[in-house]
Amino acid sequence: MALIGASDREKIRELFKDLDGEVTITYFTQRESPLLIPGHECQFCKETRELLEEVASLSDKIHLQIKDFYRDEVQAKQLQIERIPAFILEGKARGRLRFFGIPAGYEFSTLIEDIRALSRGDLSLSPQTLQQLQTLQQNLHIQVFVTPTCPYCPRMALLAHQLAMASERVTADVVEISEFVDLAQRYRVQGVPKTVINDRLEVLGAVPEARLMQQIAQAFAPQATQTSQASQSQP
Questions:
Q1: What is the spatial distance between Cα 95 and Cα 97, in angstroms, rounded to a whole number?
Q2: Is the Cβ–Cβ distance between 130 and 123 less than 8 Å?
């Protein structure tokens, strides 16, 4: 049974008509096998693969590469993939766009918009943000923790991925936090979206682009504060 309904497939196919360049999705999964050790199964690997296969089938400009997390361990380490399901989106981007977990619910729209932006090279960032990114002297790692039921999360997820599109120094991860309990505990995720910058500074809620860039600048300061509260937060 298809995960994407027939009417939604047609809507997405229409959105993909204006794709320009090629987009590659490199997906790290765990092969479904009856020999897997109990407790080591990847909870949503099968569903994530099926969803990505359906999306890729909607345009000949989208290419899906499926990798085994264990058999392709060397490549996974090179790309710093430490957990699954996970995929990397490549197209007209300078940095690295990654997604950990299944892009379900509201985050499905993040996947579709990422593909469109990567194909066409669309950047919706302000000139001030682009200038700030050009001055980065250190690598920037942004993690945006989301859940499928959070209506505010795609805004932060897409903003982080836009920053990665614009700068080779940026790696932006969107993490479906309910699938990774260890990360939820490590970063004390009690509400989403929650954004962590270089493991130094936390931004709670959906914040404007300018506000996020202020926090990024602060994260590179000698003594970065740990938490920045935002007005919107969705559990």
A1: 7
A2: yes
